[in-house]
């Protein structure tokens, strides 16, 4: 009787131990599966987030570059409205207005005309004052006898192209000269102090 009880108790203990062991194994499997699923989901979400961020950054970079390129192109071709003395308007490159702001004097009054010629622009004021601008040369004022010679192509003056800078006095005090794309125009006396002024065109 005692032996049967002991055997029975041993069997019960063994059964209980087996159940505990089984229960522990199942829990371990569940924990392992949960950890694996969690790690997998976390890794997947991390990769997806990094991919989305990289893609978004790349898109923003390309978009920003495209906008900058577009802005640069628009700036190169930009035109502005110029109002003349008679109230009429004309569209001119921004460089023309910048040159007017730099060189035109208040005493010249309002511009009376503007024209595009030989790849550049000429803005006319009263009393033989002009503003010139060309993309390859920049802007410059031109006036007086040198302007008259150039505009009317006296002695082939137009062959020197557009002016590069304002006229300057000759070092000997004999007159003035102005530098152009392809040469200079000199307005000075020929020889003696009482000789008449004349335009001399010097090409490069």
Write the layout of secondary structure elements.
Blueprint: H1 2-76, E1 79-83, E2 89-93, H2 94-103, E3 113-117, E4 120-125, E5 129-134, E6 138-143, H3 144-151, E7 168-169, E8 175-180, E9 183-189, E10 197-203
Antiparallel strand pairs: 1-2, 3-4, 4-5, 5-6, 7-8, 8-9, 9-10
Shape: globular
- DSSP strand tally: 10
Helix content: 40-55%
Domain unit count: 2
Instruction: Tell me the quaternary state.
Output: single chain
How much is the average pLDDT?
A: 75
Beta-strand content bin: 25-35%
The largest β sheet comes out as:
4 strands, antiparallel
Individual helix count: 3
N-end to C-end Cα span:
135 Å
Element pattern in H and E: HEEHEEEEHEEEE
Low-pLDDT regions: 1-24, 26-32, 53-76
| Secondary-structure content class | alpha+beta
State the strand order across the main sheet. Answer: 3-4-5-6
Q: Measured on Cα atoms, how large is the radius of gyration? A: 44 Å
